[in-house]
Amino acid sequence: MAGARALQKEKTRQAIIDAALMHLSAEHSFASMSLREVAREAGIAPTSFYRHFNDMEELGLTLVDESGLTLRELMRKARQRIEKNGSVINTSVETFMEFVERNPNIFRLLLRERSGTSVRFREAVAREINHFKDELTEYLMAESDYSQEYAFTLAEGLVTLVFNAGAEALDLNPIEREKLKERTILQLRFITFGAASTKEKA
Amino acid sequence: MAGARALQKEKTRQAIIDAALMHLSAEHSFASMSLREVAREAGIAPTSFYRHFNDMEELGLTLVDESGLTLRELMRKARQRIEKNGSVINTSVETFMEFVERNPNIFRLLLRERSGTSVRFREAVAREINHFKDELTEYLMAESDYSQEYAFTLAEGLVTLVFNAGAEALDLNPIEREKLKERTILQLRFITFGAASTKEKA
DNA sequence: CAATCCAGCGTACAACTGTACACTTAAGCT
DNA sequence: AGCTTAAGTGTACAGTTGTACGCTGGATTG
Q: Which residue intervals define the domain HTH tetR-type in the entry (chains A, B) (predicted)?
């Protein structure tokens, strides 16, 4: 039942996924990646690719999902840090920037496919980002007495600012990156404070 | 001196540019566009392309520049509207959303190449967006007594939120779009108000 | 044990790509 | 009028792409 065969299949499936992720970089996008390239890198015949995915698009969606998992982990980590540390804003920015630095290519994938040519890709990425917004909305509602809608609007603004800062950070050197981080933190303070002051609560 | 020849050359150059812009859509990106496709659409032989551009990249940069001009016009229009109308925030969002609705493909081009695989493309788009930030910074400094740095941070936040809302609007129906617009306006109020309250001035 | 299944392979093909090269032909210049 | 310049053409080629098809050999099943 262990399935020595199924095991091998899963192994090459992972090889394909890894090969695809490996080839992602600042100069090489998933969209400009050919089936044959992936197969070559994964060490299989081009036609063997079809035993695992119907399409490059199907592989791409898998990648986005895998990236989503990594992001979900990130969120959990951020929440733990906040519980211990206190500062929501600083911790969130720190955690996110750390993710971008450590997984630039995964982040690039999301960034690009968010505005890519495939509807399904765009939807998949939007779904992942919405997880962020929703979790943050919940958090904000627990902390203060904002209405659902109000909290969501604020959460959306916060996520947008952080996500965008991550995107911009990709092309910056460490010094500029640090400055960007500080500006972002300030922007988050502004919007948070503004929301708290405008005060249209539940 | 008029140059009947130079005139004709300029004409087919424009034909190439128009063909490229025409082919941009939700399903077709500039990156996935071939030299031959453009030539075909422009009604010239593939090899004639080289009489005008060395590269598809060179054509792409030209497109980004042209888009920049359209955006610059937009800014001028927005400023005029503000002078007459008053509300900075509402007018800005209205103007920008109008642009996205009217030139979705130009906006898509900028959006995609902002995180594309060509450094030069990314730089070109960043330059265009920086124009927005700088102009807004100047405006904010004139209106209030923020320091340059403080005003820039605020401007950056505002531009990020608006630009991102534009991106999101692309895939939405009119009703959702209206809701997004309202949320964005609220977010801009938050951040503006927050900046005014935190008050670290010149 | 024999029969079946199926992941992976190799070959093959038609479609498309960028671009080198030699050409035509009309405009521009002297 | 004659010579030159250069925009646009057509042919050609080597490289790459996705994928259809038939095969193989080891794992799985009965």
A: 10-71
CATH topology of domain A1-53: Arc Repressor Mutant, subunit A (1.10.10)
pLDDT digits (tens, 9 = 90+) for A35-81: 999 999 999 999 999 999 999 999 999 999 999 999 888 888 888 89
Q: Domain-by-domain residue ranges, chain A?
A: 1-53, 57-198
- Band (pLDDT 50/70/90 cuts) for residue A202 is very low
The class of domain A57-198 in CATH terms is mainly alpha
> CA B46, C1' D7: Å apart?
13
Q: What are phi and psi of B71, to 5 degrees?
A: -65, -40
**A20 pLDDT more than 60:** yes
A27 vs B contacts (CB less than 8 Å): 117
Of B112, B194, B195, the CB nearest to A115: B112
Query: What superfamily in CATH does domain B55-198 come from?
Result: Tetracycline Repressor, domain 2 (1.10.357.10)
Q: Where on strand C do bases come within 7 A of a protein Cβ?
A: 6-12, 16-22, 27-28
pLDDT in tens, A75-86: 888 888 988 877
Q: Which two tokens stand for residue A166?
A: 């991550």
pLDDT confidence band for B202 (50 / 70 / 90): very low
B/e letters for B35-51, b = 16+ CB within 10 Å, e = fewer, are eebbbebbebeeeebee
8 Å CB contact between A122 and A116 = yes
- Report CA(B3)–C1'(C28) in Å, whole number: 9
In this complex, the residue of A31, A126, A171 whose CB is nearest that of residue B32 is A31
Tokens of B107: 């906006």
E-assigned strand segments in A101-197: none
pTM: 0.94
A:B CB pairs within 8 Å: 111
Instruction: Closest CB to A198: pick one of B111, B190, B195.
Output: B190
- Which nucleotide lies nearest residue A10, CA to C1'? C7
